[in-house]
# Entry
Amino acid sequence: MIVQANPGAGYRALKTEIDAAVARALDSGWYILGQEVKAFEAAFASWLGAGKAVGCGNGTDAIVLALRGLGIGPGCSVATVSHTAVATVAAVEMTGATPVLIDIDAEHYTMDPVDLAATLAALPAGLPPFKAVLPVHLYGQPADLDAIGALCRDNGLALIEDCAQAHGATWQGRKVGTFGDAATFSFYPTKNLGALGDGGAVALPSEEAASRVAALRQYGWRTHYISDDVGMNSRLDELQAAILRVKLAHLDAANGRRQDIAAVYDEALRHTAIRPPTRRVGAGHVFHLYVVRTPDRDAVQAALRAAGIGSGIHYPQPVHLQPAYRGRVALGAAGCVQTELAASQVLSLPLYPELTDDEVAQVAAALKRL
Ligand SMILES: *Cc1c(COP(=O)(O)O)cnc(C)c1O
# Structure
């Protein structure tokens, strides 16, 4: 069976280097917020082109820390999307802020700036004022940062990029995660940059913004044992940081491999009725997921399964229809119509850098037969 994602293969591909890094971290005798985290934060910020990076426990906490660092919490609405990992919306609520879920554009699956503009112009009744916009660069494709950034500037709103699926994606040649007031990353094992456990980071433009987030991740401490803010505990540990330092050095090559595999799938799909992913003009897509679209999803998934090919659905239910959120979370002006349609038709094909050429060819051959 060719699986859809395979973090074990990612480990085995770099086993010698990773094992050495793990041994180094264990031997150091220092396991939380030490030299490995410091070195990883510096390397990640430099690779990204951001001012600073602050490691934290996971990608959900990264969003919480970014929002809280910008002073966003109770009494604030945050515009984000329903077509995302539930973590995006959960994180907004963890701060006490109110999420408002904007529809996606049907071609690219990212926040629709037209719906965002309409929603900002007519705040849904009873909601607190908008303070921030949190677009998600879903599947590895940048959201429309020009249009969304302009709306943020015009309305005096903070822009926070959820980059959990987009490490290395670019917009007009510049890496996403450097366009807003803060950007958040997850290092969950299957992400483009994955740890072997949980991890996350917040990227920030300035030292000052970073020091606030760094304090919030550890009880609000700026000096040990003295809380200036009410913080939380969300630290990146030394072991994961040591592993991430190894993985980061291979990330550009891994993203290149993802793009090459995507090109093979594109070609295979040309003579089928199945819609390949659309690349936004000006965007560098890093294919965290290769998501096709078909109204016959169940049949396609079954045919692939019969050919020994696994697939996934990201995501089968939009956040606003999930039991924990249904009927109580606010939607934007467009009512998430495109979001609901996409959720019923999207299918993620196997895509991870360690797929062999032979496996990629097997998937391509099965796609051509669809
Ligand atoms: C994975 C993911 C998150 C959450 O990251 P965790 O590390 O699992 O907390 C947030 N947003 C998006 C878009 C994600 O894909």
In short: The longest strand covers residues 52-56. The pocket of pyridoxal-5'-phosphate is lined by residues 58-60, 84-85, 87-88, 136, 162, 164-165, 186, 188, 198, 200 (CB under 6 Å). The chain has two domains: 8-102+112-248, 251-368.
